[in-house]
Amino acid sequence: MRTFAYESAADLDAALRSITREHTKVIGGGTNLVDLMREHIERPETVVDITRLPLDGIDELPGGGLRIGALVRNSHLAAHPLVRSGYPVLAQALLMGASGQLRNMATVGGNLMQRTRCPYFYDTHAACNKREPGAGCDAIGGFSRGHAILGTSDSCVATHPSDMCVALAALDATVEVRSLRGERRIPLTGFHRLPGDTPHLETELAADELITAVELPPLPVAAHSRYRKVRDRASYAFALVSVAAALRVADGRIQEVRLALGGVAPKPWRAAKAERILTGAEADEETFERAARTEVEGTEGFKAELARRTIVATLRELA
Ligand code: SF4
After folding, report:
1. Does the pLDDT value for residue 272 go beyond 90?
2. Statement: residue 1 has pLDDT above 80
3. Among 51, 50, 32, which residue's Cα sits nearest to residue 42?
4. Where are the alpha helices (H) located in the chain, listed in sequence order?
5. What is the predicted pLDDT for the residue at 144?
6. How far is CA 267 from the centre of its chain?
7. Which of 26, 170, 206, 237 has CA atoms 20 to 30 A from the CA of 247?
8. Taking 90 as the threshold, does the pLDDT of residue 31 lie above it?
9. Would you state the pLDDT for residue 262?
10. CA 227 from centroid of its chain's CA atoms
11. Can you tell me the mean pLDDT for 198-216?
């Protein structure tokens, strides 16, 4: 067993000072970090507990939209009346993630920072560029049924595991982060990185920054939204493919659409190509098919077909 120091931050400034030290990890719900520490993948010298910080509010913004504190538990967020009515895709995505017990512990900030569930990443006897830069990737050419088909590189084909983040990508969410240098805001779609040749660098969050909140813009189309998740078993499983969609149709034409995919890429995948085809087009099966095919064009394997079918089924249901 490796020993580590535990600190409980009394306020935000104390937490921000603590994370400027090397080999320090932040813990909220601990539903991913503790697993990673048990497997000796994360080996922090200090763990800073931030659960005493006042970051657990869900507040309406003056111009509309919601500000969700980084320490809001997944189950609390999924049950919030304004999320259920205004952003049902988010409530559904949360409820399809993990298990009831895990959702009661897992936080919004932790969900954003969770690491891939690639089995080779967790097997310290396997070669993995994400765990050990330059080591190689045993998933490429190995058992890769669950791996990504979009946004991959020769270094890494792992998928991002979050359901919540797929919904947030569709909803144009923004991540608010703080450091001793100040505050900045990062669009959710730009928060996670594609692997390129540095798959160990997973987000735009700097080492001295802490996620403080996620903001949802006022988005009327989001009231008519849906999350569909396809997985190997009915619960407590990661997505093979998931689709977050919001759609507004008038006079048979698509006036507005938001579409994002999970389980197919190293980050929550905003389906921009499909959105361009859908916007302004007739809301019919032919359009949905064309948009779905375009989004997964050039990809192979069962996930490509599964993604196509899941996109079409979700849009059909919403229309
Ligand atoms: Fe590691 Fe990525 Fe390869 Fe999985 S796919 S073994 S996480 S480098």
Report:
1. yes
2. no
3. 32
4. 12-18, 33-38, 74-79, 81-86, 88-95, 100-105, 108-113, 119-122, 164-170, 188-191, 272-278, 285-296, 302-318
5. 86
6. 7
7. 237
8. yes
9. 98
10. 13
11. 98
Domains defined along the chain, listed by start: 5-52 (3.30.43.10), 226-318 (3.30.390.50)
**Ligand 1, atom nearest to 118 Cα:** 4
Amino acid identity for residue 12 in this structure: L
Burial of residue 122 (number of CB atoms within 10 Å: 0-12, 13-18, 19+): middle
Report pLDDT digits (tens) over 55-88: 999 999 999 999 999 999 999 999 999 999 999 9
Residue carrying structure tokens 């982060």:
177
Q: Name the residue type at position 32.
A: N
SS3 276: helix
Q: Does ligand 1 have an atom closer than 6 angstroms to the CB of 69?
A: no
Q: Give the three-class secondary structure for 68.
A: strand
Three-class secondary structure of residue 203 per DSSP: strand
Summarize pLDDT for 115-150 with one digit per residue, the tens.
999 999 999 999 999 999 999 999 999 998 999 999
Closest CA relative to residue 180, chosen from 308, 42, 16: 16
121 lines ligand 1 (CB under 6 A): yes
